């Protein structure tokens, strides 16, 4: 339960940070953050995320705890790939890396937390740094 609380807090902090930074950048460039493209992007990202969330609750209910973290990584990767059609192509590669890490985590269930940290922490730090130097520097 404490791990789930931490995960929810991290999710909320991530969404807030992404929203604030995206809003600032859009304002700086004289663009609206809620364009037709951003709405389509969110819709395409939400389908795999909500499906994954429901699937994870089913796993928890059935007691398949070892597959919760791999499922998080897999469905998040799928949502990134789905969203990549409406944003930078680089997002697709982040999604593929998340899927690969999720598949590895499914094969090594005792190391789920480590893979969760790599997938949701390490990959995002690397991805964010690369995106910054490629597009915002």
Keywords:
0% strand, mainly alpha, 137 residues, 82% helix, 5 helices
Strand content: under 5%
Major sheet summary line:
none
First-to-last CA distance: 40 Å
**Total strand segments:** 0
List the helices and strands and how they pair.
Elements: H1 2-28, H2 36-62, H3 68-83, H4 90-107, H5 112-136
Helix pairs in contact: 2-3, 3-4, 3-5, 4-5
Please explain how this structure is put together.
With 137 residues, this protein is an all-alpha fold. The chain is 82% helix and 0% strand. Helix 2 packs antiparallel against helix 3 and helix 4 (90-107) runs antiparallel to helix 5 (112-136). The radius of gyration is 16 Å and the shape is globular. The protein is built from 5 helices and no strands. The protein has helices spanning 2-28, 36-62, 68-83, 90-107, 112-136.
Give a nutshell description of this structure.
The protein has 137 residues and is mostly helical.
């Amino acid at each position: 339960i404490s791990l789930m609380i931490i995960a929810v807090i991290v999710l909320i902090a991530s969404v807030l940070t992404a929203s604030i930074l995206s809003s600032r950048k859009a304002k700086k460039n004289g663009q609206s953050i809620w364009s037709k493209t951003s709405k389509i992007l969110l819709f395409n990202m939400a389908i795999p995320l909500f499906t994954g969330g429901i699937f994870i609750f089913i796993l928890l209910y059935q007691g398949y705890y070892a597959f919760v973290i791999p499922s998080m990584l897999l469905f998040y990767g799928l949502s990134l790939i789905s969203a990549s059609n409406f944003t930078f192509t680089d997002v697709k590669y982040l999604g593929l890396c998340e899927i690969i890490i999720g598949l590895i985590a499914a094969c090594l269930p005792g190391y789920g937390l480590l893979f969760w940290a790599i997938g949701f922490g390490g990959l995002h730090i690397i991805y964010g740094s690369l995106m910054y130097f490629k597009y915002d520097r």
